[in-house]
Amino acid sequence: MKAFEWANPTTIGEAVKFLKSASAGSDVDEAARPIAGGQDLLTTMKDYTTRPARVVNLKSIRGLDRIQGNAKTGLTIGALVNLTQLEEHPLVRASFPGLAEAAHSVATPQIRNLGTVGGNLCQRPRCWYFRLEEVNCLKKGGSECYAATGENKYNAILGGGPSYIVHPSDLAPMLVALGASVAVVGADGRRVIPLDKFFTSPNENIRRENVLRNDEIITQIQVPASPVAARSTYLKFKERESMDFAMASVAAAVHLSGNKTVAQVRLVLGGVAPIPWRTLEAEQFLLGKTLSADVLAETARLALKGARPLDKNAYKVPLAQTLVRRALAKAGGMAA
Ligand SMILES: Cc1cc2nc3c(=O)[nH]c(=O)nc-3n(C[C@H](O)[C@H](O)[C@H](O)COP(=O)(O)OP(=O)(O)OC[C@H]3O[C@@H](n4cnc5c(N)ncnc54)[C@H](O)[C@@H]3O)c2cc1C
């Protein structure tokens, strides 16, 4: 690990100044990085994937670790709320059940106790070519995505190219399905970014996975009150039952009208694309339909219509289709 300076700001403004001043005049892309739980940042620093000269500790700032709101106004989640807090919060469990399920699906209790919501959304990809210190892949400034023709069992089947990473966060697809936004503070002030505009695909920016600037930090995640929140669910398939990242996952949020037809729906795939993958054609198809086995099968087909599997990951297509059917059946109250 490269030696680095440690900064303990006590306010958001101070944290931004620490980030900005390290970046000014530096030709290093990430001269300073914020740290929250540290579980991902420290690993990437040990692998030399990230080499910040300064690490800015967000945990010395008070007040970023609260969940506030109610089912009528929506949720405001501080960036330092940990995943255990999220999965155990009574309001989240009762009114945003998919979010509690997504948080619960992450790793182990120890990791959930330490990992924060902000850090979970900003964690780096798990592609082993990206993580290996010795490999200079496309995302690290090299000339090739080795996953494209190499060991690509865990890589993207949708939206890939020129890099085939998948986004590792379980919270991200669910929060996109719930229509959430992030509040961000940087040297130029505060902005609120809808999460479906926050994540960036490799062909927009090969080095980054989101639109945050070097001096910006997420301070809050805002989840609006919405008719789909109460019928939300998150289903994830992982290789090891004990703990693992998603090979495929589905975040579904549905609102049924009085006659049991679909009035609103959001269906977002995880573990299959470089960004949380919204399935707009499938969502459109579902509107006005009564959920039935045939409707679920066609929805699943449409959700994966654009899939372009690599040599070793075609299994993800039927896997994700099955999860789509099951998630919709569960959210819609059908027998699976
Ligand atoms: C063994 C293991 C298994 C895991 N399995 C899963 C899994 O199945 N599903 C899943 O979703 N995750 C999984 N994770 C990831 C884990 O949830 C993340 O490590 C954690 O959420 C990151 O949170 P953190 O607070 O530790 O982030 P940190 O390591 O502190 O930060 C991660 C990144 O986010 C940036 N960052 C942190 N906070 C902010 C902020 N407020 N604003 C801007 N940037 C910020 C940091 O600079 C860094 O780049 C796993 C991790 C481990 C170690």
Protein model, in words:
- Helices cover 29% and strands 20% of the residues.
- The protein is an alpha+beta fold.
- The chain has three domains: 1-56, Uridine Diphospho-n-acetylenolpyruvylglucosamine Reductase, domain 2 (2-Layer Sandwich), CATH 3.30.43; 67-122 and 167-224, Uridine Diphospho-n-acetylenolpyruvylglucosamine Reductase, domain 3, CATH 3.30.465.10; 232-331, CO dehydrogenase flavoprotein, C-terminal domain (Enolase-like, domain 1), CATH 3.30.390.50.
- A five-stranded antiparallel beta sheet has the order 4-5-8-6-7. A four-stranded antiparallel beta sheet has the order 9-10-11-12, with helices on both faces.
- Helix 11 packs antiparallel against helix 12 and helix 12 (293-303) packs across helix 13 (316-331).
- It is globular and about 60 Å long.
Report the order of strands and helices: EHEHEEEHHHHHHHEEHEEEEEHHH
What's the architecture of the largest domain, going by CATH? 2-Layer Sandwich
Structural class: alpha+beta
Q: Provide the CATH topology of the largest domain.
A: Uridine Diphospho-n-acetylenolpyruvylglucosamine Reductase, domain 3
Shape: globular
Radius of gyration from the alpha-carbon trace, in angstroms:
20 Å
| DSSP helix fraction | 25-40%
Largest sheet descriptor: 5 strands, antiparallel
Strand order of the largest sheet: 4-5-8-6-7
Strand content: 15-25%
What ranges have pLDDT less than 50 throughout 5 or more consecutive residues? none
Mean pLDDT, to the nearest integer, reads 96
Overall CATH class of the largest domain: Alpha Beta
The ligands bound in this entry are:
flavin-adenine dinucleotide
Distance between the termini: 49 Å
Tell me the domain tally.
3
Give the number of helices: 13
Secondary structure: number of strands:
12
